[in-house]
Every structure is written in C-alpha cells, then in structure tokens.
Amino acid sequence: MTSDNHLFSSLLNDAVYASGQIKVFPAETILLNLQSYIKSIPIVLSGSIKVIKTDEEGQEILLYYIKPGESCIMSFLAGLHNDKSKIKAIVEEDAEVLMIPIEKAGQWIREFPEWTDFIFNLYQKRFEELLDVVNAVAFQKMDVRLMNLLQQKSTLYNTKDILVTHQQLADEMGTTREAVSRVLKQLEKSQALVLSRNKISLV
Fold first, then answer.
1. Pairing of strands 88-101, 161-163
2. Backbone torsions φ then ψ of 197, nearest 5 degrees
3. Could you give the domains of the chain?
4. C-alpha dist (Å) from residue 47 to 2, 12, 78, 99, 117
5. pTM over the 0.85 mark
6. What percent of the chain has pLDDT over 70?
C-alpha cells in the first residue's frame, strides 16, 4: 500500500502529516467500537473502512464506506463533543490510515478554511449516503438492495468477483442469512450473478 502525500494544499498537508500517525490495519480490524470515546479520527490513505450501526439486539446495518482521501464525519462530530461513538468502524480491505488527534482536527477548523471545507463536504456526502440507506430500507425490495450492495463492493475492490459470505451480506443489510441466500439464488436464476463458495461473481 502506498499513501498519498498530497491530500491538501502544502500548509495544511504539512500540519496533517506532522500531527498524524500512519498505521496499517488488516481487514476485519475493528477501528472504532460502539460506546468508545474518540481520541483520533481516521483519514484513509489506501484500502477502505465500513461504518456500521448496531442496535440493542446486536443487529447491524451498513451505513457507508470510507474510501481513500476520506474520513469519518461521525467520529469527528462525536470526538469534537467528547461523546461516545454511536457507530462501529471495521476495516473492509487492508487499509493504510492516517490517524489525526481529535484536538488537532477541532483546532484546524479555526485555522484552515480548507479543512473546514473538507469536513463540510464529508458531512454532505455522508448525509446523502444515509438518506440512501433510509430510502433503501423503507422502499426498495431486497433484491435491489442486495445488488446495490454487491455493486458497491465490486467498485470498491475493482473486481466482479467478490469474496464474501451470505452471513456477512446479511449482517451489513440488517437481515437474516436465509433471506439473503434465497434472494441470491433468485438472482442467480435470473443470470445477474454466479454463486460459488464464499464468492459471488457479477455478470
């Protein structure tokens, strides 16, 4: 993995790299857990992180992915107000991440208009993605939601062959493995995809 050393203009970029710490996390690493306090926010340099909401019964639903050049606005907001995290962040694919101390992230809002723009743009993007999640859960059929999720993963990994289990898909969609397996078989019959062990190939 190679990091992008030019995320921002020179002055802010120097501050970000001087204050942050680059770390490498393997897939499935829990970067942020529910009810934990945020000491730093991640800027993804390579790989990706998925952000998940979990209810009191342990059911999960995927909210959005953090891709290279992006950060987690929900971590930023919680950290800024010293609140506990309301989401879980898990590394989707091996990721190189620049960890920024939360006090610096808050300080830069007053010092760098470019950083403020970065945060507001992230907020708008995540808000639109969360609206898409609400719309999908409320109005879309299971097959449409499942295909959208698979296409997201295909774009993320840049391949039509997606290594994922039915249970993982069910967890991210907030439904049961049986429901996902049933819909996947229907999609395979309609020739939208091909199923194999722990792998789904989009046609």
1. unpaired
2. -60, 115
3. 10-137 (2.60.120.10), 140-202 (1.10.10.10)
4. 10, 23, 24, 14, 23
5. no
6. 98
